[in-house]
Amino acid sequence: MPAVKKTALLVTSAALLTMSTTAPAWADDKPGGEDKPKPPASMSTVGGTKLGEPGTQVSLKAGAPVLPKELSARSWMVSDAETGEVLASHNSHWRLAPASTLKMLFADTVLPKFPKSQKHKVEPSDLAGIGAGSSMVGVKENETYTVHDLWLGVFLQSGNDAVHVLSAMNGGVPQTVKDMQSHAEELQALDTHVVSPDGYDEKGQVSSAYDLTLFARSGLQKADFREYCSTATAKFPGETKKVTKGKDKGKKKRGSFAIKNTNRLLTGDIGLDPYKGIAGVKNGSTTNAGNTFTGVAERDGKVLLVTVMNPDSGEQHAVYKETARLLDWGFKASGKVEPVGELVAPKSAATGSGKGAPGAGKSGSDSAKNVAHASDKESGSGVGVALGVVGGVLALVAAGWFVISRRMPLPDLVRRKTRR
Questions:
Q1: How many Å apart are CA 147 and CA 162, to the nearest integer?
Q2: Are 86 and 342 in contact (CB under 8 A)?
Q3: Which of 70, 150, 156, 361 has the fewest Cβ atoms within 10 Å of its own Cβ atom?
Q4: What distance in Å separates the CA atoms of residue 98 and residue 303, rounded to the nearest whole number?
Q5: What pTM was computed for the model?
């Protein structure tokens, strides 16, 4: 397994030392290591000059824990969702293929435009242009779905079919791409170039760990976004078919089927327990991007965002395990590191205009009474929020609003704990 190059840190009680390694954390001294992609010598400095430097950026105070050694990602970042402070980063502005983590930008852009109860009958043209080998939730032509159903398909199964239907509702894929690019620029996510709304591998489509974190932070402003990204299991509408037997023979009936969130830090998997305190957000995987993930978690009143892009250790569930290691480090390091940068606020936040300002752009059902209270009765979709996961049941804790950040508050984030 590739190992992080060791950097000696001599810390006294009064000293503050900064580690800035120019060697990528995934590089090693083995033959062939020099053939691996390297970050640009200089990158964007949005959020701070250190974030534009290649390699690992972290400033440890006395008593701070060292960063995990088992990190192989090309790029990663740990930030405090409350203050916007970047606690540590590694090539955080490296422009890389984002895979389905780009769906966070798609959701943050399009989700506020349609109420969750709105219905849409799928036309054949809605599903045109979906990339070969795309992840699908199972949307069918000539069937009717609620917007709520479609967003569950986007977040839980990373369904490109659901993305394309919602894009069709938004005026088509080209219009949606234009809207997403405009919103990225509003968020000051300047590393991002959008080509497809679903994150499918396309020439020139890039983002960065920094930008993906901005998308997650902005999306978490919205109650519906928080609900969908934290939902572990749900029922999705199936096809309408004629009943072939029984008392309803000859009648048409629409069934449903279970779907499960592919975010394995939320649902768990063989060899991977759910992460205690996880509350979303989105994973992705494509040939060009490798595995990507942005996660938000809360522990002891502290809320952290971690983004990891393209680990190459070969470890099973590497993107999740490296995220978990960085979350663990971040919670231990809180208050013991000097920030190396910050998550910037949207452009309009500085001007005080409504568009993109904190709390703006809420969906039709974005109110405190609707946050993360999905049940099996809601919208007929059988939503089960974080139920029946490996290692115990993750329960929603709706109480205890918290005010986030001097710059960009995140109201009533879904909080989680593992029941024992």
A1: 9
A2: yes
A3: 70
A4: 23
A5: 0.80
